[in-house]
Amino acid sequence: MLQINSRQEVVVNKQNLTYDLLKQQDDQTTCGILNVFIHDENFQNVSSLVTQEIIQRDEEDAQKLAKGIQLSVEAGVLPALAEPVEYTQVQVEGKSADEVADEMMTQVGQENLDNGCVIVLCGLSGTGKGTTVSKIKSVVQKCHTWSNGNVFRSLTKLTALHCKKYNLDLKEAVKDSSLLQSFIDCLSFVDRNGEGNFDTHIKSDDLHVDLWVNDVKNTVLKDPDVSTNIPTVAEQSQGVVVKFVDSAVQVLQNAGFTVLVEGRQQTVDYVTSPHRFELTLKDPNIIGMRRTAQRMAGVAYESVKEQTEISYDEVYLCLNECLLQIINNAKEEN
Fold first, then answer.
1. DSSP assigned state of 284
2. Residue 279 lies in a domain
């Protein structure tokens, strides 16, 4: 739990910087580092810059997504939303990830968690969405996390293969919404073996493709023709992907799964669910503090992981050295 401590309390909190805490590499590690470095001028300066970078990147991503959604609306693929979609705001400042997850699950209700539901989660980068999803997944027995990334990758693969076969310019081809729809129709989300092993099937007779996403997500779906073209395809295909995602998560819900959908609000607005949450922070600078603390923790642990016995003073000095290293790297980049 993050608490803005006095300088005297910071001295006491140094004693909590144990090797075991560093080894955990979780939200407790992050909070432990924050409670010690919160008043450190170098830490504050770095965190402020990181916060600005994250917010700027989020705003740029939001604008790109909004453009893609608008293109889909204009093409008639998606309906225009008459009113803003409402989300329950969950204030995460001063709370552990377990407390945030518990708050959300209480609002969803145990009956829904036991019988299947869709939980939509959004918020700025660094507010703890991924950690919260992991916490919920660890306690809900029948749970599935959803990622849009592999859908976009599958669609991009089909587009690239089609353009190669018919000698088409991909940037021009993706402007044809009917063509993108034909590719999304090549995807189906089904139970592979009738035992709850759900996966996306990619099948196109024309392109001689018959693949399962979980089998190829780290190989075929990361080929250069996918990595290079995914931004171009994603901009034009927001609508068809959102509709596919909505249908897929409903399949999982009907099978009794609690489905956790984390993403940008512009896209998850179109996922059907009464359980919508937005993680928020009163002080946005904490976003940069968390990210900086996570980087410090990762680098520090790599440097001391072979040492099974190390004092809290040595852990602190190692973390401080990592902070100075981050500062020097930033200066070199600029």
1. T
2. no
**Of the candidates 6, 28, 32, which has an alpha carbon nearest to the alpha carbon of residue 99?**
28
d(C-alpha 161, C-alpha 219), whole Å: 16
254 contacts: CB under 8 Å, gap ≥ 6: 116
Radius of gyration (C-alpha) of the chain in whole angstroms: 22
User: Does one domain contain both 174 and 244?
Assistant: yes
Structural domain boundaries, residue 18 = 7-53+284-333
Please give the Cα distance from 52 to 40 (Å, whole number). 19
Taking the model in full, what pTM does it have? 0.80
Domains in the chain, number: 2
Spatial neighbors of 15 by CB under 8 A, at least 6 apart, are 312
Contact 258, 140 (CB under 8 A): yes
DSSP 226-262: HHTTHHHHHHHHHHHHHHHHHHHHHHHHHTT-EEEEE
Cα separation of 5 and 7, whole Å?
Answer: 6
Quote the tokens at residue 126: 């660094």
Q: How, if at all, do strands 275-280 and 88-91 pair?
A: parallel
Per-residue pLDDT of the chain (334 residues; tens, 9 = 90+): 444 455 556 566 788 888 899 999 988 899 899 989 988 999 999 999 999 998 998 888 888 888 889 988 988 888 999 888 999 999 998 888 899 999 999 999 999 999 999 999 999 888 889 889 999 999 998 999 988 889 999 999 999 999 999 999 999 999 998 999 999 999 999 999 888 899 999 999 999 999 999 999 989 999 999 989 998 998 899 999 999 999 999 999 999 999 999 988 888 999 999 999 999 988 888 889 989 999 999 999 998 888 878 888 899 999 999 999 888 887 766 5
Contact of 119 with 260, CB cutoff 8 Å = yes
Q: What is d(CA 128, CA 285) in angstroms, rounded to the nearest whole number? A: 14
Whether residue 223 is found in the same domain as residue 291: no
Tell me whether residue 103 is in a domain. no
Q: Residue 178 half-sphere exposure, CB side, CA atoms within 13 Å?
A: 0
